[in-house]
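Before going further, learn to read the protein records used in this course. The integers have meaning only within a learned vocabulary of local backbone shapes. To see the layout at work, look at the sequence and tokens printed below.
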Amino acid sequence: MITLNDAKRVITAAEKKAQEIGQPMNIAVADAGGNLVAHVRMDEAWIGSIDISIKKAYTSRAFDVATKDLAPHCQSGGQFFGIHASNDGRIMIFAGGIPLKRNGKIVGAIGVSGGSGEQDHAVAEAGAAAF
């Protein structure tokens, strides 16, 4: 289970990393069912990235994989090509989603959006590390 306090700790660490790299982000934390626990839109983060961050967290939990690791398999000709259209369009295959584990079991995920894929993933890693 991910509590609200867990989610706040993850978001705080992710925000700190986003501030360090100078990129405002949207940061979402989802529970084991892929449901949103908490979300933060940093000042000046893109409003279009709100939905993307939430969907990255959902995707990472739904498939128990970092979204950056899923993306290469979703290209034309790849084994998961077209997966982004599944789950009522909730699948986001850009970097920035990472599962959150407790005692070796995935119990949720973080999703980050607002910068490049590399920036999103770095901020998500910082949040995941605080979990």
